[in-house]
């Protein structure tokens, strides 16, 4: 474990999703304690995307922005919202020089699959249709996020391909949650890692799926055909039950002819980038933003 990260582990909430409301409150407190990045050089606007039901979004527009990303918060499909993701959305918008559309998708278990995916797809469609109003090139729209949000980004890329939906230029998948089966080495063996454990991961899937069987749109690792998907940047953390499914997905994308940049970060754990003072976190944040900037400007 990176020693800078290890010192902060006791401050993280317990790895427990038995009570979703308490888990949400714990995450909100953790996010509120983080220092807020500077927003002097960008416009921030709360909007509502018409859908059934309507979807709240928060739009971040840095000066001279290039392209846009539909950005999805993490939280195991259960936790997180526009406010907990606010510091991250600012960092992505500032670092990449990109318009960020942060999505307040519906959460489980109150709203199980496919509610969140439907919300994200509605926002993606809206962004493509309103690109001129947003000041972005409709050919330069990416999807991305953390953890469950990264899983949703991968799922919406699959759906957009299958339904001939809006073109997606790039997938930015940070520590993606992709596979409900939990059969990889890291998913089976990481039972006591910080923040995310095997049992907590299993509970996220129970909340998200209920008794319904998983489909590739719920768990993208189940997709048998990954050809024709957008290029991807995939980042994984060393001490994370999700590590191996992210690496496996990257390899399968490559084997399907999709361009992939894969970075496995040593010494890190799931969500450790919430400790922005750590040198490794700063490198991770910088690289995520740089990968997005390259994808949307080159």
TrEMBL record:
Q: Where is the Alpha/beta hydrolase fold-3 domain?
A: 69-272
For this UniProt record, the keywords arranged alphabetically read as follows:
Hydrolase
Query: What Gene Ontology molecular function terms does this protein carry?
Result: hydrolase activity
> One Pfam family name from the record?
Abhydrolase_3
Q: Which InterPro entries match?
A: AB_hydrolase_3, AB_hydrolase_fold, GDXG_lipolytic_enzyme
- The organism's place on the tree of life at top rank: Bacteria
This chain's protein is named Alpha/beta hydrolase
From the broadest rank down, the organism's phylogenetic lineage runs: Bacteria, Bacillati, Actinomycetota, Actinomycetes, Streptosporangiales
